[in-house]
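Bumping with the actual sequence this time:
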Amino acid sequence: MGDIKLFTITNGKVGELVGSTETVEKSVQTLFEKNLEVLLGVRFLASEFPTTHGGRIDTLGLDENRCPVIVEYKRASNQNVINQGLFYLDWLMDHRMDFQWLTLERLGKADAGAVDWSAPRLICVAGDFYRYDDHAVKQMQRNIELIRYRRFGADLLMLDLVYASTLKSATDTKQISGEGAITPTKYKKIGTILSELDAGMGDRFEALRAYLRALGDDVQETTLQFYIAFKRIKNFACVEFRPMAAKILIYVKVDPSEVKLEQDFTRDVRKLGHYGTGDLEITLSKPEDLDRAKPLIQRSYDAS
């Protein structure tokens, strides 16, 4: 598939940094697992997690949306890492309690009780993918991301989101309860909320959605139980709805201390609980609010 080139500029002269991938992927796996949240927005749970059929899942984690994540690393040029990862993903969906007990052990009751099974993910990491891999992923009804990596010397690591296939949502979202966890039965799910939007709110959301998707070919839209997340490798905008107040709320990853907050438009939510990710809340109450919000959304997209 395509390649990315990096160059140094010294005294007006350009020199190419030659990228490389590891022949033995264990070092890459170790690097990812030690820095999983920074690289992928995923909290690390386990390495080489054993399954009942004798296989081992390379890396298990919990993403920003509290969804289970499997990370598989391509160890050989002839390895079909996608099919292998899908096999483990199916196993995980049939052994949810194993995952939630692991989450309970590593992260605590609140996170274990709030695991969201509506959008489990498979992330495949490789030095490269075959030209037909992205086509194959398109045919699969799963949340799959293909991430290519390159190392440039000892100090530079490049990640390239080659392709992502996003399943709209799943309705079967079994959970276990936990102290401090969000209780789903107290809140309407996103499908119900969307069906209750009036024409004005519906039009505003479609305009917002069109803008978010147009930010780049790498934008993924994931419908969770209570909100919609837009992400590249990591979330950059999470959207909630307040139909009774005719408001759309957007949470973005922008430092509120660097923004001039405006009443009824922007709010610092660092100390307030909410679904999704992001410390700055943006409220869209009328169509023209979207234009005001675009620079802030762009900042969050660029940083993700």
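The tokens above came from a reply further down the thread. Confidence is low (pLDDT under 50) at residues 170-185.
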